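User: My collaborator sent over this chain with a note saying "see what the structure looks like." That's all I know about it. Can you take a look?
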Amino acid sequence: MKKIKVMLVDDHAVVRMGFRLLLQATADIDVVAEASSGEEACQTVEASTPDVVIMDIAMPGMGGIETIKRLSSKCSGLGILALSAHEDISHPMRALQAGALGYLSKRCAPEALMDAIRSVAKGQPYMDAQIAQRLAMQSIKGRENPVEKLSAREFEVFAQLARGQSVAQISELLNLSASTVGTHLYNIKQKLGLNNQSELTLLAVRHGVISVTDGCA
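Assistant: Without extra context I'll predict from the sequence alone. Here is the result:
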């Protein structure tokens, strides 16, 4: 039996270890590589030749969405499964637009992860059922999500700001200059009609970009 070769991309070593132990116990899946950042994933993906990359969305540096874009353009036919603790609809939409073939919540059951990996390896899309339902309901109701006005980088800055990160902290996390982060912050406020941090955080919670507890992280 040909095994599905998987690459794990997550900035938490304990999370990667947990996934590795889980997947290595599966007869048809083999973890062939790990990366702690998007930058490392882009540097090592060609050497490890995975069939599927399991990609954490919320990572320091270039972040999961940008990494998905680069891996998709770098390796045609590579199946990317985005994994996130966020269960809003903005993250999965952006991940899929960037080139991911699947999206799962980190709260999913192990069986769902296995099914997702197998589907993505075959080139078939896979979406967390609850998130797919919310996407469908928004489409039916025609409700506009103001967060969709933001560019990919603005969205990353927006999410970090909503979690209470300072401009200096975001600059370090995303490898951007403070002035660039400041420009993104100005554009975010203009596009979303926000006046202060409280309004920004409230909007993020209302649309599921962060949970109430994220602001304490």
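A starting point for your reply to your collaborator: Residues 60 and 173 are 5 Å apart (CA to CA).
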